[in-house]
Design goal:
150 residues; 7 strands; single chain; alpha+beta; Nuclear Transport Factor 2, Chain: A
Length: 150
Amino acid sequence: MLVTDDRAALTARCALLYNLYADAVDRNDLETLRELATDDIRITRGGEAEPGGIEAFLDIYRAHIRREFQVCQHAVTNVIALREGDLIRTSAYFQARLFSQQGTQILIGRYADDHVVVDGDLKIAHKNIQVHKVMDVQPGHDVFAYAGTD
């Protein structure tokens, strides 16, 4: 059976973890990122395994912070979770919108993370990021005329 109450609850819990992760990345919140991951987290980006561990994981986001985006906004959708023993295998689509003075990048990709339960808390044990497309667009601006205010 593909759709069960247990799987729906598991998928919702994994979606919450993805949303907390995306929010922490967008707010440059390294402490929350630390709390969301296991100490021995594995990292794969672009199909290539990278050095793992919590500090290597946080180094990715330290480098992200140094890029000084004016606005960074991640959206995670289409989360699917399946329990395999102690691991929870997940997949999700993501879109990251990165605004800077030089321009805006929109990244489209997929996460294929493994989650585990540690002392009742769901954590990322393997962060697997695959960027499929990058769109470069003009810089964004801060002025917007709401309907009826022009």
